[in-house]
Amino acid sequence: MPTPREETTQKAKTAKTEKPEDAIKLLTKEHREVEALFKQFEDAKEDKAEKADIVAQICDALSAHAEIEEEIFYPAAREALSEKGEDLLDEAEVEHASIKSLVAQLEEAEPDEELYDAKVKVLTEYVKHHVKEEEGELFPKVKKTDLDLDALGAEMFERKTEIMAEDDEEEEDNPE
Q1: What would the DSSP string read from start to end of 44-83?
Q2: Measured torsion, CA atoms of residues 152, 133, 102, 65, in degrees rounded to the nearest 10
Q3: Rounded to two decimals, what is the model's pTM?
Q4: Residue-wise pLDDT tens for the chain (176 aa)?
Q5: Most distant CA pair in the chain: distance in Å?
Q6: What's the domain range around 132?
Q7: What is the CATH number of the domain that holds 153?
């Protein structure tokens, strides 16, 4: 039986052959996937190996998601919204920095460490807040612009595929 991380990797490989979605649909779908992983973590109770596997998936997903947002989506949104989106995008970038810090800490941590579960809980809260602002405020504003969300989504999809391939290569080069 495959581990949860192997299942996620398989889903990602399958997704590589799917048709890219518009940028907002792609990001929203990724939000739901990470929310599901947080729920799996909550349900894992005391199974430390399962928790570690789920946290690794969360960290991988958030890292790839942040990278395509920062490299592609945010600059395009900033240009399309000009001053109307400046504060929201500035906040989003600060939120990303906090999330990345926790991701980095969790990538180095073990599930039996004292603050492990607390860090996952805080990460969950940060991500929920970030998602709420993006989906409730930023995305509706971006939808009202003339930004080509289909082309942007295709670019983001392609970049995410590259990131995941790089991650696969790193895992093959450095098996645990």
Answers
A1: TTT-HHHHHHHHHHHHHHHHHHHHHIIIIIHHHHHHHHGG
A2: -20
A3: 0.85
A4: 555 455 544 554 444 446 668 999 999 999 999 999 999 999 998 889 999 999 999 999 999 999 999 999 999 999 999 888 899 999 999 999 999 999 999 999 999 999 999 999 999 999 999 999 999 999 999 999 999 999 999 999 999 999 988 877 666 666 55
A5: 51
A6: 21-162
A7: 1.20.120.520
